[in-house]
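We give the entry.
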Amino acid sequence: MMDNKPLRFREAERRDIPHLLEMLADDELGKLREHVSTPVNECYLLAFDQICRDPNNELIVVQQGRQIAGMLQLTFIPYLTHKGSWRCLIEGVRIQKAYRGLGLGTRFFKWAISRAGERDCAIVQLTSDKRRHDALRFYQNLGFEASHEGFKMKLSEE
Protein backbone atom coordinates (compact mmCIF):
# COMPACT_ATOMS: atom_id res chain seq x y z
CA MET A 1 0.00 0.00 0.00
CA MET A 2 3.05 2.27 -0.03
CA ASP A 3 2.75 4.87 -2.72
CA ASN A 4 4.90 7.77 -3.83
CA LYS A 5 3.94 10.04 -0.95
CA PRO A 6 6.96 10.82 1.24
CA LEU A 7 7.17 9.43 4.75
CA ARG A 8 6.93 11.84 7.65
CA PHE A 9 8.35 10.98 11.07
CA ARG A 10 6.85 13.05 13.89
CA GLU A 11 6.00 13.01 17.57
CA ALA A 12 2.56 11.61 18.26
CA GLU A 13 -0.22 14.01 19.15
CA ARG A 14 -3.08 13.50 21.56
CA ARG A 15 -5.53 13.18 18.66
CA ASP A 16 -3.52 10.15 17.43
CA ILE A 17 -4.19 8.10 20.58
CA PRO A 18 -7.27 6.16 19.37
CA HIS A 19 -5.44 5.10 16.21
CA LEU A 20 -2.30 4.14 18.18
CA LEU A 21 -4.37 2.01 20.55
CA GLU A 22 -5.94 0.20 17.60
CA MET A 23 -2.46 -0.64 16.30
CA LEU A 24 -1.30 -1.83 19.73
CA ALA A 25 -4.33 -4.12 20.04
CA ASP A 26 -4.19 -5.45 16.48
CA ASP A 27 -2.51 -8.80 17.13
CA GLU A 28 -2.92 -11.88 19.30
CA LEU A 29 -0.80 -10.54 22.17
CA GLY A 30 -1.96 -6.93 22.04
CA LYS A 31 -5.65 -7.68 22.07
CA LEU A 32 -5.18 -9.48 25.40
CA ARG A 33 -3.58 -6.51 27.14
CA GLU A 34 -4.89 -3.34 25.49
CA HIS A 35 -8.29 -1.73 25.98
CA VAL A 36 -9.66 0.04 22.91
CA SER A 37 -12.74 2.08 23.74
CA THR A 38 -14.58 5.30 23.06
CA PRO A 39 -13.94 7.43 24.97
CA VAL A 40 -10.29 6.47 25.40
CA ASN A 41 -9.50 4.92 28.78
CA GLU A 42 -8.04 7.63 31.03
CA CYS A 43 -4.94 5.53 31.83
CA TYR A 44 -3.76 5.90 28.22
CA LEU A 45 -4.26 9.67 28.29
CA LEU A 46 -2.28 9.95 31.52
CA ALA A 47 0.54 7.81 30.12
CA PHE A 48 0.62 9.87 26.92
CA ASP A 49 0.87 13.11 28.91
CA GLN A 50 3.72 11.69 31.02
CA ILE A 51 5.61 10.59 27.91
CA CYS A 52 5.20 14.03 26.35
CA ARG A 53 6.49 15.79 29.49
CA ASP A 54 9.58 13.61 29.77
CA PRO A 55 12.49 14.96 27.68
CA ASN A 56 13.96 11.45 27.52
CA ASN A 57 10.89 9.88 25.91
CA GLU A 58 9.54 10.30 22.40
CA LEU A 59 6.44 8.60 21.04
CA ILE A 60 6.97 8.66 17.28
CA VAL A 61 4.63 7.93 14.39
CA VAL A 62 5.44 7.47 10.73
CA GLN A 63 2.93 8.87 8.32
CA GLN A 64 2.43 8.42 4.63
CA GLY A 65 0.16 11.15 3.42
CA ARG A 66 -2.50 11.48 6.10
CA GLN A 67 -2.32 7.83 7.15
CA ILE A 68 -0.40 6.81 10.28
CA ALA A 69 1.45 3.71 9.15
CA GLY A 70 3.45 2.89 12.27
CA MET A 71 4.56 3.86 15.74
CA LEU A 72 7.34 3.31 18.27
CA GLN A 73 8.59 4.78 21.52
CA LEU A 74 12.16 5.92 22.10
CA THR A 75 13.48 6.18 25.65
CA PHE A 76 16.91 7.70 26.19
CA ILE A 77 18.67 6.28 29.25
CA PRO A 78 21.94 7.47 30.85
CA TYR A 79 24.20 4.67 32.13
CA LEU A 80 27.31 4.47 34.25
CA THR A 81 28.42 1.41 32.27
CA HIS A 82 30.09 1.72 28.89
CA LYS A 83 31.95 4.82 30.09
CA GLY A 84 28.84 6.67 31.17
CA SER A 85 27.20 6.48 27.76
CA TRP A 86 23.55 6.86 26.80
CA ARG A 87 21.34 4.12 25.40
CA CYS A 88 18.20 4.31 23.33
CA LEU A 89 15.49 1.80 24.15
CA ILE A 90 12.99 1.16 21.35
CA GLU A 91 9.62 -0.22 22.47
CA GLY A 92 5.98 -0.34 21.41
CA VAL A 93 6.82 -0.94 17.76
CA ARG A 94 3.86 -1.41 15.44
CA ILE A 95 3.45 -1.21 11.68
CA GLN A 96 -0.04 -1.23 10.17
CA LYS A 97 -0.70 -4.58 8.49
CA ALA A 98 -1.21 -2.94 5.09
CA TYR A 99 2.35 -1.52 5.25
CA ARG A 100 4.22 -4.66 6.35
CA GLY A 101 6.68 -6.22 3.94
CA LEU A 102 7.08 -3.02 1.93
CA GLY A 103 10.23 -1.63 3.55
CA LEU A 104 8.52 0.92 5.78
CA GLY A 105 9.63 -0.80 9.00
CA THR A 106 13.24 -0.78 7.83
CA ARG A 107 13.05 2.91 6.95
CA PHE A 108 11.39 3.65 10.32
CA PHE A 109 14.14 1.83 12.21
CA LYS A 110 16.90 3.56 10.25
CA TRP A 111 15.27 6.85 11.21
CA ALA A 112 15.04 5.77 14.89
CA ILE A 113 18.68 4.64 14.95
CA SER A 114 19.71 7.96 13.42
CA ARG A 115 17.65 9.76 16.09
CA ALA A 116 19.54 7.80 18.77
CA GLY A 117 22.78 8.98 17.20
CA GLU A 118 21.56 12.58 17.34
CA ARG A 119 21.07 12.08 21.08
CA ASP A 120 24.67 10.74 21.42
CA CYS A 121 23.57 7.20 22.27
CA ALA A 122 26.26 4.52 22.13
CA ILE A 123 23.81 1.61 22.13
CA VAL A 124 20.35 1.01 20.70
CA GLN A 125 18.48 -1.80 22.39
CA LEU A 126 15.03 -3.33 22.31
CA THR A 127 13.02 -6.20 23.62
CA SER A 128 10.48 -8.29 21.77
CA ASP A 129 8.17 -11.01 22.96
CA LYS A 130 9.67 -14.40 22.06
CA ARG A 131 6.36 -15.36 20.43
CA ARG A 132 6.76 -12.58 17.81
CA HIS A 133 8.86 -14.69 15.42
CA ASP A 134 8.51 -12.32 12.44
CA ALA A 135 9.56 -9.35 14.58
CA LEU A 136 12.59 -11.21 15.93
CA ARG A 137 13.69 -12.09 12.40
CA PHE A 138 13.14 -8.46 11.30
CA TYR A 139 15.34 -7.11 14.13
CA GLN A 140 18.10 -9.62 13.40
CA ASN A 141 18.02 -8.67 9.72
CA LEU A 142 18.53 -5.02 10.77
CA GLY A 143 21.70 -6.02 12.63
CA PHE A 144 20.40 -6.36 16.19
CA GLU A 145 21.94 -9.25 18.11
CA ALA A 146 20.17 -11.38 20.70
CA SER A 147 23.16 -10.91 23.00
CA HIS A 148 21.36 -10.90 26.35
CA GLU A 149 18.65 -12.89 28.05
CA GLY A 150 15.87 -10.62 29.28
CA PHE A 151 13.64 -11.00 32.30
CA LYS A 152 10.44 -9.24 33.35
CA MET A 153 8.33 -9.34 36.48
CA LYS A 154 4.75 -8.10 36.56
CA LEU A 155 4.03 -6.13 39.72
CA SER A 156 0.31 -5.91 39.07
CA GLU A 157 -2.30 -7.29 36.75
CA GLU A 158 -2.98 -4.90 33.90
Q: What stands out?
A: The beta strands are 7-11, 57-64, 67-78, 86-95, 121-126.
